[in-house]
Every structure is written in structure tokens, then in C-alpha cells.
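Q: Start with the shorter request: fold the first protein.
A: Done. Sequence, then structure:
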Amino acid sequence: MGSKSVIVVGAGSAGAVVARRLVDAGAHVTLFEAGSEDTNPAIHDLSRMGELWHSKDDWDYHTVPMAGAANKPMHLPRGKVLGGSHALNATIWVRCAPQDYDDWAKDCGEQWAWKNVLPIYKDIENFSGGASKFHGTEGLVPVDNDYELDEIQQSIIDAAVQSGIEFNPDYNGEQLDGVSKEQINVVGGERINTWKAYLKPVRERLEIITDAEVHSVILESGTVVGVRYQKGGQLQELRADEVVLSAGALGSPQILLRSGIGPAAELQAVGIEPLHELDQVGKNLHDHLLAPVIAETTTRDIPAPRTGVSVSQSHMFSRSRADLDRPDTQPIFFAVPMYSPGMEPIEGTAFTLHSGIVTPHSRGEITLSGPGLEDQVNIDLNALDDPRDLEAFVYSMKQCRAMVQQDALAQDWGAREVYPGNEVKSDEQLGEYIRNNVVTYHHQVGTCRMGTDAQAVVDPQLRVRGLAGLRVIDASIMPKITTGNTNAPAILIGEMGAKFLVADLGL
């Protein structure tokens, strides 16, 4: 039997992992990436992260205007480059709550339970704090917890503690709750993503086709046999024994829908012939959301960002209600002002305590407007549609506002809240402020949901239901979003999916 050929679509957090594991197992791998090489210096220097939004390395997606977000659209940056969104993000390493995985396992099998994914996480990481029952040091992904905090970031942590929040030295340890220094994927001031850590060292062992956007998969008699892709303005085809979609929670469902895999009536309505009915493709879209508390410093200036150092170094996990079994809020703290669209800039230096929710109840969807790559995609997070989301958000915003009042910020930096501002007092006013200024935490998931029920898009081994030769391996498979940043879980999903596929291919 000859080597199996596999096409992997997307060189992001999960796709790079899948491609590497397949190469190691002896498969013939062709990797498609819609973007280019990661030559932009801003990718490698975390202090320049803001330059990447709206750049050529960003898909630059926008949602439709959303009622829950004051009828405004929201910018959703996504990586269009080798490295994917892990080339654009803040590289924060969060494994999230053990209960997240145990919830998945109830429906999708014990392999997804926390006790079984923790050893995989340990195998993935090279933790600066040394090996322990929670951490590994032999993995390909560097996790740094030893860098020096900027003074303003230390003051933010101190202010959280002064306001009654416990300091947690390791949120990837015993528990998530508390205020913590972020653990990040950085070595010597340089961002390390899975493209660099997994794939770049073996790039001679696979074929990588950049600047090539996959339009659809080729479906013949219930089996996927290849992909159609556009490169240099030409639509071309490539065939393989197996196709893996790792194009992310916004990309993978679009490819399925353009392939005629999805809700039949919706596809027909936009001129696509339905070939395989799967009603939930593109549904169950959800995301973590943020809204800023921005304070100016009146007695001393915050130094400018340093090369190779992120403007975010601390965050916090908290429960908005005592009866919750895990945190539902995760504010993230920045040494610079993070203005929402339409905000007037502050003249002096300022910092941002970005209040945030990580257990959204609202669900949205992705739909197409036509069959072509140039046809507009409609992305609707349906943000803040469920009233429970706003309740948790208001709680988080109040926590952030209280931090600004503490001595570590108010006295030591002369911190003074500018946004929302003193005139915003009641819960109703706070809710209105949040709706007007809500932004994404860059964690879209759920659009190719994993499950064992008839509505699931993929099964617990991440095979697309009812089809042979096709898997989805990325954050789109999450039935429900994790409690915290989704990059580490996406890498875990890459490792899990690769293991299933290698076993199925008999490699």
C-alpha cells in the first residue's frame, strides 16, 4: 500500500499541528493557506500586535449589524497567513476549565474528558516553570511564565488584590479563579505559534501552497476526494485520499456550505446545489466578548510599549454568581487605551481594564450570500441577545471599575476613569454602554459542532457526519466554548484530530 495523501486546509493553530503529525506518520501532505508567508515583522513582535488588524494578514471580517450590539457591526480579525490567528493574537496560553472538557465528554466520549486531555496538554507544552502534575517541559509549544511584568501591569494586579480578588500564581494549575500574570507563547521576545513550532522545521517534508483559497471540497458518491481552490485568479483542483478542514470557525463552515454541505433550503436560496444535508453547518456560532474600562494616568506616564513585550500581561477569572461551577467572566488588562470604534482618544497615557464574558448564552450563525469566493459572507454573532450575557458583563464591568479606584492605580498613577465615565452609574446605563462598545475577544467557535446527535456536524472523531474522507479539525467543532482563550484548546483539538486520523488511515 502506498503512502496516503492528505490535504489540510489552513495553516493555523490546529492545521499546523495536524499537518506535522501526518508528516511524522508518513502521509503525503499538501497544506493550503489562503494567506502568505509570515514576513510582516509585526507578527513576530507582540508590542506591534495592533498593526496586524486590517492588514493583508487579517481576513478583516465584519459581522452584520447586531441588535444586541446597538445595531453596529463588529470587526473580527482572523489570521490570513502561515500561523493563522495564532500569528495575530496575544499568544495567551489558557487551558480553560476542566469542566469544559467533562461537559464535552458527556456527549462525545471519555477521550474528551479532562483526565484524558490533561496529559496531551502536558505533552504539547514546554513550561518555563518546570514539570509538575499540571505542566510539561518536553513539548513543542513554549509557555513562558517568567518574564518581567511592566510596572503598570503589576499595579493592575495589585489593584485587583486590593479590591478583594485573590492572586492566582498559576491559572493553568489547581484552579482558574483569581487575578494572574498571563502565560504566553514567546521566546526571547518573539511570538511562537504552531506554524513556527510544529511545521516550519519540517516544511521540506510536505507541500505548502500559499495564497490559495479553497473554494469547496469535491464530493463523489458520498466520499470527499479533493478540493477546488483559487490561486492566481484560476480555479484548480487537487485530489487526495482524505481532506481535513482546519480553516477555523469562520472559514471551515464557509467551505462546507460552498460545497453543498449544509442546510438544503438555505443553500438553494443562494444558488448552491445541496449535495449533503447537514442543517447545523454554520450554526451555533458564539464568541467571548469584551467592553473597555479606560482610565487615564494623571500623575505619571505609562512608558511606551517595549519591543517584544505584549501590551497585555495580566487577566482575571471570576464568577458573576456564587452558584456557578466555573468562572463566567475573564477581564483582560492592557497598558494602552483599547478604544472601541467611535471613542474619542485621550490626550495623555491611559490603560484598559477590558471587562469580558466567557460563558456566552447567545448563539449566532454564518450564512452565504452566493456560491463564489467573492460573494459576501454574513456573520451574525447575535451578540448579547440572551439577557444572562449582559448580567455577567455588568458584573465584570463593575469589578474593573472598582480596580481603578484602588490605591495601586488611583494613588500611584493618578488613575481616573474616562470610559464609561462618572455619568454612567446604573446597571441600565452600564448595559447600554456595553452594547455600544462591545468588541470580540477573537474566540469564535462552534460552527461545525461535534456531537453524537443527529444534528451534529462532526462525530466525536471529527469526521463530517454521513460522508467519507472529510474531517473538520479546529475550534469550529467545539459544542460549547471553553472558559478562557481558545488558542490552547484549538491546538489540543489539532493533536486529538490528528491522532484519530492517523489511526483511521492505518499509518
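Q: Next, the second protein, separately.
A: Sequence, then structure:
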Amino acid sequence: MGGALLLLAGCNTLPDSGPTEAQVNHAQRDPKKNTVGYGIVQVTPELVSQLAQEVPPALDSLDTGNVPTIQTNNDTVGPGDVLQVSIYEIGSALFSPSSAAMTASSVSGTNTLPSPSTASNLPPLPIDGNGDLDVPFAGLIHVTGMTTDQVAETIQARLKTKSQSPQVLVRISSDIANSVMVYGGVQRPSRIPLTPNRERILDVIALAGGEERPSGDERQPQTDEDYVVRLTRNGRIAEMPLKVIENEPTQNILMQAGDRVQLTFQPRTYTVFGASDHVTQTHFKTPTLTMAEAISRVGGPVDSRSDPNAVYLFRFENTDVLRRMGLPVEGNAPTAPIVYQLDMMNPANYFLAQKFMMRDRDLIYIANSSSNKFYKFFGLISTIIAPGITAAWMAK
């Protein structure tokens, strides 16, 4: 009995790379150790189906119940825009320098024929913060929400009593109101003006030069799946991988004035700890990655040290998913910690591992076998006594 107690004490003092299945389960039930409140859920066909139905907020969700007050075709003007106004007049022109000479000739009695028409280009006219445009002889005009044709008609109506048959042309020389900001991992971060052609989100990314490909390690390939598009519209935010937008036309939504598009390079990785061939952080390298593929990339469980019954995946899961599982969720946090357990001694679970999809920043832990410490202890004893046995044998 004394020898057994000594053996157990010796085993418990040996170093280890991580907990066993029993230790993980015990720590989950101990409030002092489980300070983050995680639960352990077995990977089942129902769980895989439920997780497969979870989808992040789509970009087209920002269109639902978020219709602009004024529907436009990207040809209206607003505060910050700069307009170029051209005025064509017949006879004595208000805006032409020749009008003063013609007036003087009329006073002196000189017989001077008026020019059939005169074109005048006004200096660039900015629209102020209140949406007003100040036009000489026409006064202050509130133009926010008007098209360029409507602005021209308004100016023309005000000049009719002061000029002979005026004709007005208006164009936008600097378009601020109908523009979106594109920034982040694009080649030319800038303000992109929208046109009546109705640009979509992929269009404005392309106009900003497309994704910026940083020179990186060849072992870390840069794919469109690693670029995330973040759209901010009227205080609401949605994110989606660039590849998903490219593959799903419904997500290539129309841009609205004032949208902000951020492109971010976020290489997806997962981490492996415990009794595997490699304790490492690994890049996805492919558009999608299953749990089976992730485990196989690091060599899988090591026969001499691992417990295939206890392969864990640690994740911060969306709280809506946890509520559907019937797990308690505290507060209004968007995510909560959860641990998924896969029993690799059950052949049926290999099919589940092929359908369980990995996510960015997932952590896989392969538990140590409970008998691992005994093997370590006997290995240590053998190392200590082996030289003595060898010396005794040589002495004979």
C-alpha cells in the first residue's frame, strides 16, 4: 500500500501539457475554476444541423426597414456639393461683360446690334450646410434633394424677369452628397461618387482599386475569404466575407449616399493544444475548413499521450445559438464561451467531424490520457535504474 501511495504521489508531481477528460469535466462543474461560465456540449447530428443553419447578419438586411426618406437615382444635390452653372442669354446679358458696353452704346446713340446669344460660366458655386445655393441675381435657393435639372429650372424661373430668354445648365463638379467612403485594405482609399448608374458594393470596391494584396508569407495565401467587408449604414453595421458577396448576387447590394465600406484583411486561423503532433496556430488556407481537416493538418491525436474520447473545441458562440440549445446565458452579451466535445473513439463521429465547420479563432484541445502519467513515471524510473542494471550486468 505504501508503494502504491508513493507511486500515485510520484505520478501527480510529473509535468503535463494539459488536463485529462476528467479534469476538464470537473473544472467545468467547479464555479471557482469555471469563472467564465462555459458549458460542455457533445457534438451530435442535431448540433451540426443547428450550427449549419446559423448565418451572420447579411448585407441585404441593412435594406430592410431602412429605406431612405428621399428615393434618388444618385443625381440629386446636397450640402457640400459644388455646382457648375452655365447661363445662356439673348440680347443684353446680365452675366456677360459685354452687357455694360451695349448699355453705354445705347445711351450714346451708337447703332450697335446685340449679340444673338451670350454664354456665361459662373464661378463654382458651393451648397452650404443648410442645403442652400446662392446664385447672383437669383438669390438664395434651397436645393437639397433637387436634381440638376430641377436646380436649373429654378434658377431659370428666377432670372426670367431680369434677363431675356435665359437658359440654364447645371452640373455637379464636386459630388459630396451622392458618395460613399471606401477605406481599409483597398489600394486607393477614397470618397467614391455615386452615379445614376446605381453602383453596387463590389463596384465601389473596384473603383477604389480592389483589395490591397500585402506581400506576405507564401505559407499564408491571401484569398478573398480572408477579406471582410464591413458596411455601415445609418448607424447599423453588417459584415461579410468578400467571397460570399462575390458568390451571392443578393448580397451585392446597391450603395446609398453616406454609406461607409471598410475592407479588412483578416487571415483566418485556428489553434491546437494538447496531445497532438503539433501545438501550433494554423491558417485555414482554403475557403472552408471542417473539424476533421483541422485535426488532420496537425497530425491528429498522438497514440502514446492522447485520449481520443476527449477532443474539445473552444469557441465564443453567439448567444442566440446557446439559447436554442437550452443553455443559460447571462446578460445581453452577443457571444458566450462554449466547449464542444467530440468522441473520436466512435466511428460515427468521424462523419460529424466532416460536417462540423471551423471558424476563425477556434481552439482545439486534445486531452491527455489519464494513463499518460503512469507511462511517464515508469519511463522516469527506467531512466534512473537503467544505468545501474547495465553496470551490474557488465560487472558479471
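Q: Describe the second briefly.
A: Residues 372-395 form the longest helix (24 residues). The chain has three domains: 17-54+268-371, 59-67+178-265, 82-103+114-174.
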